[in-house]
Amino acid sequence: MRNLRIDGERLWASLMDLARIGATPKGCKFDGAFGVMAALEVVRTLNDLGWETAAPIEIVAWTNEEGSRFSPAMVGSGVFAGVFDLAYGLGRPDNTSGVTLGAEFERIGFAGPEPVGGRAVAAYFEAHIEQGPILEAAGKPIGVVTGAQGQRWYEVTVTGQEAHAGPTPMPRRRDALVGASRMIEAVNRIGHAHAPNACATVGFVQVSPNSRNSIPGRVFFTVEFRHPEDAVLTEMDRALRQACAEIAAAIGLEVEVSEFWYFPPTPFDPDLVAAVRDAAEAQGYPHQDIISGAGHDAVYMARVAPTAMIFVPCVGGISHNEIEDAKPEDLTAGCNVLLNAVLDLGSACRRP
Amino acid sequence: MRNLRIDGERLWASLMDLARIGATPKGCKFDGAFGVMAALEVVRTLNDLGWETAAPIEIVAWTNEEGSRFSPAMVGSGVFAGVFDLAYGLGRPDNTSGVTLGAEFERIGFAGPEPVGGRAVAAYFEAHIEQGPILEAAGKPIGVVTGAQGQRWYEVTVTGQEAHAGPTPMPRRRDALVGASRMIEAVNRIGHAHAPNACATVGFVQVSPNSRNSIPGRVFFTVEFRHPEDAVLTEMDRALRQACAEIAAAIGLEVEVSEFWYFPPTPFDPDLVAAVRDAAEAQGYPHQDIISGAGHDAVYMARVAPTAMIFVPCVGGISHNEIEDAKPEDLTAGCNVLLNAVLDLGSACRRP
Prior knowledge:
The structure is a homodimer of 352-residue chains. Chain A has helices at residues 8-20, 33-49, 75-80, 86-90, 101-108, 134-138, 176-193, 230-251, 270-283, 297-301, 328-345, and strands at 124-129, 142-148, 150-159, 163-164, 199-201, 205-208, 214-215, 218-227, 254-263, 266-267, 287-292, 307-312. By secondary structure, chain A is of the alpha+beta class. Chain A folds into two domains: 8-148 and 265-345, Zn peptidases (Aminopeptidase, 3-Layer(aba) Sandwich), CATH 3.40.630; 151-263, Alpha-Beta Plaits (2-Layer Sandwich), CATH 3.30.70.360. In chain A, helix 1 crosses helix 11 (328-345) and helix 7 runs antiparallel to helix 8. Chain A is elongated. The relative contact order of chain A is 0.22.
């Protein structure tokens, strides 16, 4: 372990310079950007110190990680890793105008001649803000990410009988929203029942007719479950279906629970994870193992290359939000761990 | 009691003719239209039979009862009864274009020279479909409406912390939707606790940011309570505020419960109610007393004149919906009761 140090001020300045490009009131400065700027800082540091690695280091800025403009998310790493084929990726339409990702690459000059993927990658590291509250609460600047949670995503439709809210007595109602509310509470209970690693969320709700004085006849909502173990996800799936069926039957509703996305749990490479842990230890940073709850390009890369991630805390555990923030010293710590983990893996490094 | 009979086939034909004007896939054929066509049929019958009443009979087609295009609802009867002043009524803007009700009256030639209201009304009767399931379930063609429920309408805003659904552990969440779901269940419980006359409904829900993989940071929803007794409405109000406060405190949410509309319970005139009941009895129609849960022009008219209503069943208790339906024989029964109750009140009627 060589225990080199990056230049934290240069890293911070790069992030702030980058944040000025395309800034909006909700411009998030760190989600994604930190990983790319940290990789750049690693290479700059190696150049400054005159180090050369046995294997070449590539810095990747994956296209369309968020999927905000072109669905689905992580389409760049997905194509690289063979999850999607290239034509599918290039053909993704803009969510509003319909112009394709491939056409936009041509227009802005990003459509290069290199083939996507297909070459050997010895190791893939990704540094990222945690986007959750665990490291901040624990007071630790480094999260050693041991893998990514599996995910099961559902769409639930509850159907009752729309009616006028005034003249319809309570016992005669088949109120889809009362049913949906009990199901949302059940989703929450299923999440808590599998603490500490389970997440269970209803994020989207659509009520019909959504009128102040109508008993809702139909409610559509989404459910997502996350857990690092497939067996637990299976049990959560069973509990969801049972709860929805029982709640619907009690009020005379119909319910349809449809799973539309499954993402298997992804353990990261033990050697790379150990390299991250060792680097944090050697640099004297408090650290803890952590499971990634969010999707990352690293999760696709883990299908084709040994992979690990480094998390740093974000303020209040908040991301995807205008108040997303991170401390410079934590970003420096994460970048130092990235540098030394990379050097550890490329153990044939030499000082020319 | 003279026990005259209207022409049920003519009444039905009038309703079907009217329904063809401005028909849409959600054209309701009976809500409102039945009352006007029934009044017309009463006058046609009196003319056919050569009867004349001591007091003149006016047929009213109230403007803008639904409030679909110009808010608020019942603005015509409200101006007549002095609930709103005339300038307010004429100044109501179209919900989308902003053109006023008064300007539209001028354009279509409905702006007449008569003053609105201000003259004595000895009795006001209104026939209406029930818009609820009670009469159909009881197998009775006539509801003797003894009064209208009081209403309290609320807006509730629940604020938690928006966060990424993946990396935020269950115990650290302040999920506004979980809180709102428990409050919606509490509203339902409060309604059932005051059966059989209470109604408690959440009809409108708005979740923010309403994204599949975000923990909702804010939920806005409406509550409406209805009951014929003010003391019960006061108790329901107390229970709502207590439940919302307790649920919010348990999850660390903020909640704001704001009442924005109060409509006092309106008992109808005992003499007119008795005239309706007597007419149903004399005609041999099964009947029962019933409280109106919906708002009606009659509720405003009750402020300035002795008032009563006659309900007839609607199929499945459904209204405000494309499948609204009513049976011709029930409409005939309601119109016969209206005819004879009107004649009973105008007791100085004579055959010329």
